[in-house]
Amino acid sequence: MLKLIIIAFLFTNFHTKTTNGAIINKNVERVIDLSTQLVKISSAITLENTGKDAESKYIITLEPNSIRNLSFISAKDSYKEELKVTETKNELGQVFSVKLNHPLAASRTSTINVEFVLTNSLVPYPSSIVQKDKQLVRYFGNHYFYSPYLTTKQTTSVIVNTRSIENYSKLKPVSQSDSSITYGPYNDVAALTVDPMIVHFENNAPFLSVTRLERLIEVSHWGNIAVEENIDILHTGAKLKGSFSRYDYQRDTSNNHHSIKSYKTILPAAAHSVYYRDSNGNISTSQVRARKDWIELELRPRYPLFGGWRSSYMLGYSVPSYQYLYKGVNNQYALRMRLIDNVFDDMHVEYLETSVVLPVGVTNVKLSTPYEVERLSDSIAYKYLDTKGRPIIRFAKRNLVEQHIQDLEITYEWQPLLLLHEPVLLSIALYLLFIVVIIYVRLDFSISKPEHVKTQ
């Protein structure tokens, strides 16, 4: 009883400091998408200001068991305009403050759309299966919309994209229709209410994670930007129990299987000179298809991936620099490229390390990223004919998904005359080589002079 009183006191104190108890969730329509390896939660929230003063921010919270798996969060208003989301900490722990583009006046309503992407939130159950078994997973969530505000009305739809549902928690009213489960409507839900939700179902989507991705971007003012990625991948689904039979695998013509035969990577439309190889050399089973706005690369590992199996490979390509490198005034340049590229659909990258190699002689380098990253120590690289090293900008980021595919910007100053640096060095080297050859040919290093035969 004392614990409940303390929690109620902390919540009341927090609610008073942040919103003065003025905002309530008049209606919440929540959709939980469990059809892939990621958990995607989108909520359409109708806010109502019951106070006397205008409110300019809205607080978002997540259950303690979900906050550690949060990879991405975003918010938009009813006009699809982005709302600024700031992560903060207070009495409730880690929360997110959404700044409204237009303050919500007293007795008025407004609608915002909030999206979460959670990783590692679908647990294989059983954790080990044989080759022919289907993959079952469990999701642990909350029947109610977790919020520090009173919720007048709410409904939740859980999309599993399969009819093979083993069981699910039943908090009435609840109904099932084909590949979805609908909970609610629930009325007058108190703030921070938790009621455990469990869904156990079949999910044979690719449970593929990139455990480590090392991305190298090499910038050249000669018209080319080279990109190379070293990728380690792991099948994070139910582990394979027992031996693997190639014969049974080839006989299984079903496309609905938990193993991963191949996957598709999306490259920029201008990408060329694509190569794909692993530790054994080039993998010739890959296919490159040119689409209207991108290049589709189908990658097929040397062996199918089952739960707990790993693979690693190198992917590289080049793009023309004029599409990503922009010149400003006073010899200023700006590089705008993707911080991370698409690896596969519904990807999960556990750790990314990006290195950007800039040309020789750049100064006043500034890095701007679309979200917070860990800045690593810079280094120097030496390429062909370099008398001065090329600066390398390095940074890292953990727990990324497709929504993190955004552009970074690096600005720097560079003198165009440095473009002649390597040609001049090469010309001097060739000139000196010719001089040495001429001198060598004209010198006589023999010990005795040959006798000339006189002719009569």
Automatic annotation (TrEMBL):
Coiled coil: none annotated. It is a single-pass type I membrane protein. The chain crosses the membrane at residues 424-443. Pathway: Protein modification; protein glycosylation. InterPro entries: Ribophorin_I (IPR007676). Residues 1-21 form the signal peptide. GO terms for cellular component: oligosaccharyltransferase complex. Keywords: Endoplasmic reticulum, Membrane, Signal, Transmembrane, Transmembrane helix. It is found in: Endoplasmic reticulum membrane. It comes from the Eukaryota. GO terms for biological process: protein N-linked glycosylation via asparagine. Pfam families: Ribophorin_I. Subunit of the oligosaccharyl transferase (OST) complex that catalyzes the initial transfer of a defined glycan (Glc(3)Man(9)GlcNAc(2) in eukaryotes) from the lipid carrier dolichol-pyrophosphate to an asparagine residue within an Asn-X-Ser/Thr consensus motif in nascent polypeptide chains, the first step in protein N-glycosylation. N-glycosylation occurs cotranslationally and the complex associates with the Sec61 complex at the channel-forming translocon complex that mediates protein translocation across the endoplasmic reticulum (ER). All subunits are required for a maximal enzyme activity. Belongs to the OST1 family. Component of the oligosaccharyltransferase (OST) complex. This is Dolichyl-diphosphooligosaccharide--protein glycosyltransferase subunit 1.
